[in-house]
C-alpha cells in the first residue's frame, strides 16, 4: 500500500459531493431503493429522530422537512423553500407527535398536488400526440368480427 492510497484527494471529495447533491436534491430527505422519498429530522439535544413520512416526490418530502425544522428551530432555520413556510398557525404543543402530524399534513398535500400535476401534464402530452393514445377496450362488448383476422 502506497502513501496516498488511504486518503482522498480534494478533487475526489468534490466529485463525491456533487454526486450526493444529485442523489439528494434537498436537505433532510433521502430516496429509498424502490424510489420513494422519505423525510426525517433529529430532535434537538437528543439522539432520536422524528419520522416525517414517505412521499412519491422529493418536493413533498422536502416541504415536510421544512415544516418540521421550522417548528423545531424557528425562523432562523435553514429551509429548502424559505418562501413557502406558512407562519399563520402556531403550534401550541411542540412535541414530536404534533410536529410529525403537522409535517405529514403539509407533505401529503404537496404530494397530492405534485402527483396530480404530473398526471395532468402526462395526459395532456399524450393527447397532443394522438399516435400514442390507446383507448381502453369495453370489456362488456363482444369483439367485432372484422377485428379477428
TrEMBL record:
Subcellular location: Nucleus
GO CC annotation terms, alphabetical: nucleus
One Pfam match: AP2
GO molecular function: DNA binding; DNA-binding transcription factor activity
Biased composition (Low complexity): 117-128
Keyword DNA-binding included in the entry's annotation: yes
Listed SMART domains: AP2
InterPro entries attached to this UniProt entry: AP2/ERF_dom, AP2/ERF_dom_sf, DNA-bd_dom_sf
Region (Disordered): 117-149
Any Gene Ontology biological process: ethylene-activated signaling pathway
Main location: nucleus
Main function: Probably acts as a transcriptional activator. Binds to the GCC-box pathogenesis-related promoter element. May be involved in the regulation of gene expression by stress factors and by components of stress signal transduction pathways.
UniProt protein name: Related to AP2 1
Organism the protein comes from: Hibiscus trionum
Organism classification: Eukaryota, Viridiplantae, Streptophyta, Embryophyta, Tracheophyta
Amino acid at each position: 500500500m502506497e502513501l496516498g492510497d488511504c486518503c482522498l484527494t480534494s478533487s475526489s471529495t468534490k466529485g463525491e459531493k456533487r454526486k450526493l447533491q444529485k442523489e439528494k436534491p434537498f436537505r433532510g430527505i433521502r430516496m429509498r431503493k424502490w424510489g420513494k422519498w422519505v423525510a426525517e429530522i433529529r430532535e434537538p439535544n437528543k439522539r432520536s429522530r422524528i419520522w416525517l413520512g414517505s412521499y412519491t416526490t422529493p418536493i413533498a418530502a422536502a416541504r415536510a422537512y421544512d415544516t418540521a425544522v421550522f417548528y423545531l428551530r424557528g425562523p432562523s432555520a435553514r429551509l429548502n423553500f424559505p418562501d413557502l413556510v406558512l407562519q399563520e398557525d402556531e403550534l401550541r404543543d411542540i412535541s414530536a407527535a404534533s410536529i410529525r402530524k403537522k409535517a405529514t399534513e403539509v407533505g401529503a398535500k404537496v404530494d397530492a398536488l405534485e402527483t396530480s400535476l404530473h398526471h395532468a401534464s402526462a395526459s395532456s402530452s399524450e393527447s397532443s400526440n394522438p399516435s400514442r393514445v390507446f383507448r381502453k377496450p369495453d370489456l362488456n362488448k363482444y369483439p367485432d368480427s372484422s377485428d379477428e383476422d
